[in-house]
Amino acid sequence: MKSVIKYALAASVIYLTMPVSISAAMGQKPAFVNFVTLAHRGASGYAPEHTFPAYELGVRMKSDYIEIDLQMTKDGELIAMHDETVDRTTNGKGLVKDLTLKEIKKLDAGSWFNKAYPAKSRSEYAGLKVPTLKEILQQFGMTSKFYIETKTPDMYPGIEEKLVQILKEYSLTGIEGQPSRVVIQSFSAESLKKIHQLDRGLPLIQLLSYYSPAVISDSEIAALKKYADGIGMHYTALSPGYVKKVRDSGLFIHPYTVNVKEEMDKLLGWGVTGMFTNYPDKLNEVMRGKK
Fold it and tell me: Is 190 exposed, middle or buried (0-12, 13-18, 19+ CB in 10 A)?
């Protein structure tokens, strides 16, 4: 039976303490110790998403995890990119799955940001390269934690096996009773279940889509708990009652993408256990205000 990960929220936010049932988690040390600040595609409000500068800023702003969206190239390399195409965030065109890593490495992954956000532009962003998962882990793996999403995994047969293999290669999956330094999320339940079979110790978060205020049944929660440790959804779908029900069930709840301080403060009051933001510094300022 998979260990349930435990949160013990900071004393400054006592009202967010997890239910007693969570504290009875079996054996393995908890993967999360405090409420988690999640740098959405890095600190992507200040630098081009999924580039080294964005990740470096996320670390500098004391994010607990940096998020990495995964796509797979034609030649089977895992790269950090949100979209299925390179069109939006590079000067190239085409589906990632139809391009080799060598072709993608020729693209400029930073100049678009300077054009889109001239007030935040920096000369060093021009010419940035799309990083591979291995390059990110080599650069940040000794000190950082990673929140990885398998994007459209049905387009990439074998992406789960390749991901778990790489994480084990970099000793990030948790060894000798230590917690994993990686969390995996996906909208695909099939992808998460496959990862669950490959490594039962990896914390998994099921992403959910809501087009109206979120509602979740007891049977849905029971089904989720067979493989997932928590759920994530767009923060605008949430309500205090939904958050309470999820929390009372023992699942963690990590809404995305919260960039306004007033919304951050409201969600903290409702009891969410982590939050994605393009501005980790703003979220940390809100958290400090709770002390």
Answer: exposed
The DSSP bridge partners found for residue 147 are 67, 183
Max intra-chain CA distance, the chain: 52
Residue ranges in the chain modelled with pLDDT below 70: 1-34, 175-178, 291
Using an 8 Å Cβ cutoff, are 276 and 42 in contact?
no
pLDDT of residue 147: 98
Residue-level pLDDT at 217: 97
In the residue annotation, 50 being an active-site residue is answered as no
d(C-alpha 248, C-alpha 8), whole Å: 14
Active site (annotated) includes residue 82? yes
Catalytic residue, candidates 40, 50, 196, 254: 40
Q: What is the pLDDT of residue 141?
A: 87
CA 86 to chain centre: 20
Residue of 175, 173, 187 lying closest to 233 (CA atoms): 187
Q: What is the CATH T-level fold of the domain 11-289, as seen in this structure?
A: TIM Barrel (3.20.20)
- Record the pTM: 0.88
Place of tokens 């994010």: 63
Helix (H, G, I), strand (E, B) or coil at 80: strand
Q: Given the DSSP bridges, would you call strands 65-72 and 146-150 parallel, antiparallel or unpaired?
A: parallel
The residues with which 36 forms a beta bridge, in sequence order, are 274
Q: How far apart are CA 51 and CA 129, in angstroms?
A: 7
- Exactly one of 50, 82, 196, 254 is catalytic; which is it? 82
Residues 279 and 43 sit within 8 Å (Cβ to Cβ)? yes
Integer Cα distance of 230 and 4 in angstroms:
10
**Which residue's entry shows tokens 């509602």?**
215
Structure tokens, 67: 């998020």
Give residue 32's pLDDT. 57
